[in-house]
Amino acid sequence: MNVRVKIFGNLKKKLDLKDNGAGIPTIINVDFEQDSMVIKNLFDELDLNTEDTSHIFVNGDYAGLKRRIKEGDTIAIFPRDMALLYKWYFNREGDIERREY
Amino acid sequence: MTKKILRVNMKTLETKFEDFPEKYAALGGRGLTSTIVSDEVPPTCNPLGPHNKLIFAPGIVTGTKAPSSGRISVGCKSPLTGGIKEANAGTKLAQMLGRMQIAAIIIEDKNEGDDYYTLKVTQDSAELMNANKWVNRGLYEVYKEIFDEFGEHVGIAGVGIAAEMLAANSGVSFNDMEGLPSRYAGRGGVGAVMASKGLKFMVVDETGAPGVTLADEEVFKQGTKKLAKSLATHDVTKPHGALNSYGTSVLVNIINEARGLPQCNFQRGQSEDSAKVSGEAKAEAVKERGGTRPHACHPGCIMQCSEVWTDKQGKNPVGVLEYESVWALGPNCGIYDLDIIGELNRACNNLGMDTIEAGNTIAVAMDGGFLEFGDGQRALELMEEIKNKTPLGRILANGTEFTGKAFGVTRIPVVKHQALPAYDPRAIKGIGVTYATSPMGADHTAGYAIATEIMGVGGEADPLDTSKAELSRNLQAATAVVDTAGYCLFTAFAVLDIPEGLEGMVESVNGVLGSNLTVDDIGTIGMSILKTERDFNKAAGFTKEDDRLPEFLREEKSSPSGEVFDVPDEELDKVFAE
Predict the structure, then answer these.
(1) Residue B430: closest CA among chain A residues belongs to which residue?
(2) Which of A53, A68, B91, B461 is the most exposed place for a label (fewest CB within 10 A)?
(3) Which residue in chain B is spatially nearest to A51 when comparing CA positions?
(4) Measured CA angle at B252 (ends B251, B256), to 5 deg
(5) Nearest Cα to B33, choosing from B82, B106, B99?
(6) Residue A88: pLDDT band by 50, 70, 90 thresholds?
(7) So what's the pLDDT on residue B456?
């Protein structure tokens, strides 16, 4: 399956991606052999350390590491130094454990 | 040395210091302004008439070494909402009043002539002097002249051209640490109330101030140490954390991704172009231009979320570009250019206007076809109309609802006549409940901070399981307490996650007051402040029908989320059900 991943902030540099300017996310397409997986698998595929990240969204829904993703999904990943969300207003689908910000 | 109240009668031009009443002893900031308004202002009075009063009050710990506590509350009956209003700002002037042991300044009655005055407050005196030379002038220039005249060390509060027109979108401006008129008690038309009385500026000189009396220094020190540690270690508030690195507009990309960043007068909740005006883009530009970032709004702040934004040449400093301002003057107007947004923000500061209300005003004018979405140059020309006090300028300066009606717009994003902040309540429903039910009108700060789990109200550990009504109530109560203590609301991010931090915050208040409050008291104190405010509104004529979002948010789907605001009215009524 193929998913679209939007990488924000300093994660662009960490993953050694092309940078289109401060604030502009870099969009990459990631192909998997499996038809279904969870965010954590995507992190492994990208060699992305969860400690370096904060907010994750799947098609605009606030998501945790256990959130299932499928063909055509758009996943947005923010770096840890952008951790700032009024978590109490968002339900996060797919948490392995609740992470506090 | 005990605390005092400074009472200023603008009709007789008399000033007097009074003893601080025992019944107010445990109050400061918002708790104090709202209680005095409730005690002394008739709820049905004309907000711009002689019976309204304007109250300034620093927080309980403001003026001490408690971190991030330089806040001042400004309270009155609002000419925008018609209800009670508390707006607050971070500024050195707040700390000065705290150290001078001035718990509140009450401005009452109104001057009968056409003259404007400056109130100069020192440790032993308060005098009114003519301020007519500063009428019809932009605040950036005037603040420079005030510093020249009174000295670099003073603190300034002032109102601008918008307030001179008694326009409902006029805030009270305070100087930042560079002397710029950029820190605002912005919302609800508090500036018009000040100007209606004939008061243009307040200049505070703290020379000889005794400092805040600490009832229990040990407890205070222990508390502030815990709080400082939590602020310095939490991801959101620590040095190089989100607020410090990017400022509040770190939220632009995040809320846009959540489909909750309103575009073009709440027509959509997301745009790819939002990234161009994100906090990351802003921080990079500040660095390139030689502006200042990070930056504190008052001495002693650990978070330092502020900055000094300048034009491309590094000239014409604006002050901070907050998330709300960037959104209101940017994406909500279809404008995705930080330089235009910076100029619009500078114009708001110069004229003495709230940026949230101003951005929404331009957006409804755009929606009404008066100018095109995205037309930043025309938006700047509208600011000139306000500056020149033209009939059009007077309409715009009265805010979103007034302007929307003038241009035949039905999509008017207001609650209790006050414009919505930067979160689409269709995508982020919890905040919609707060917009609807806050006694202040649509206000993001009213229920911004501190989760239910710490409150001991409701008892459940997981805030995600809490009903929206209960969540909003607890958030609003906690916010009222933070605004009363004098802490910046952003301290909540840290004390939310670090229990010792919250304990420390309560201990710091105990250290000043000599009280024995615990974390469990936060809910009760907050609810009693909210009750005072809601009772005032009720007496002013508000009913539960005023605790509602505008119709279009219930009926027009936001794209791309496809959501409407569907929280039932019964749920909204539960927030403050007795």
Answers:
(1) A89
(2) B461
(3) B235
(4) 110
(5) B106
(6) low
(7) 33
Cα three-residue angle B408-B333-B74, rounded to 5 degrees? 90
pLDDT in tens, B454-489: 333 333 333 333 478 888 888 899 899 999 999 999
- Indicate the SS3 state at residue B249: helix
Q: Which of B96, B56, B59, B71 is nearest to B209 (CA)?
A: B96
pLDDT of residue A89 exceeding 90: no
DSSP track, B312-326: TTS-S--B---HHHH
CB contact under 8 A, A87 and B258: no
The answer to whether residues B298 and B91 touch, using CB atoms and an 8 Å cutoff, is yes
Residues B186-202: what's their mean pLDDT? 98
Read off φ and ψ for residue B105, nearest 5 degrees: -120, 125
Count how many Cα atoms sit within 13 Å of the Cα of residue B397 in the half-sphere of its side chain: 30
* Residue whose entry in the numeric block shows the structure tokens 């802003």: B282
Which pLDDT score, from 0 to 100, does residue B448 have? Answer: 58
Q: Determine contact, residues B164/B131, Cβ cutoff 8 Å.
A: no
CA distance B482 to B380: 36
- Dig out the tokens for B257 from the structure: 């991704």
DSSP B22: G
Contact state of B242 with A88 under an 8 Å Cβ cutoff: no
Q: How far apart are CA B512 and CA B214, in angstroms?
A: 4
Q: Tell me what the mean pLDDT of segment B247-261 comes to.
A: 95
Q: What pLDDT score was predicted for residue B461?
A: 33
Distance CA B41, CA B52 (A): 6
B192 contacts B163 by C-beta, under 8 angstroms: yes
C-alpha B217/C-alpha B175 separation (Å) is 30
Percent of chain B with pLDDT over 70: 96
Query: Which residue reads 């040449």 in tokens?
Result: B313
d(CA B424, CA B426): 5
Q: Does the bond joining B294 to the residue before it have cis omega, within 30 degrees of 0?
A: yes
| Token representation of residue B345 | 């923000």
CA distances to B7, B68, B324, B335, B563 from B330, rounded to whole Å, are 41, 29, 9, 4, 23
Strand partners, A58: A61, A75
CB distance A25 to A17 below 8 Å: no
Lowest mean pLDDT across A6-20, A47-61, B262-276: A47-61
Q: What is the DSSP-derived secondary structure letter of residue B332?
A: G
User: Is residue B201 packed enough to be buried (19+ CB in 10 Å), middle (13-18) or exposed (0-12)?
Assistant: buried
Query: Per-residue pLDDT for B449 more than 80?
Result: no
Token digits of residue B298: 């008052």
Question: Nearest 5°: CA angle at B346, between B340 and B350?
Answer: 145
* Optimal mutation site among B253, B263, B321, B453, interface A, most CBs of chain A within 10 A: B253
Contacts of A82 in chain B (CB under 8 A): 242, 245-246, 250, 253-254, 279-280
Residues paired with residue A37 on neighbouring β-strands, in sequence order:
A69
Q: What are phi and psi of A81, to 5 degrees?
A: -75, 5
**pTM of the entire structure?**
0.96
- Round to whole Å and give the CA distance between B264 and B87: 26
C-alpha distances (whole Å) from B104 to each of B35, B40, B117 are 11, 13, 19
The contacts of residue B81 (CB under 8 Å, 6+ apart) are B188, B416, B417, B418, B440, B441
Beta bridge partners of A29: A4
Shortest distance, CA A85 to any CA of chain B (angstroms): 8
Please measure the distance between the N-terminal and C-terminal CA atoms of chain A and give it in whole angstroms. 31
Give me Rg for the CA atoms of chain A.
13
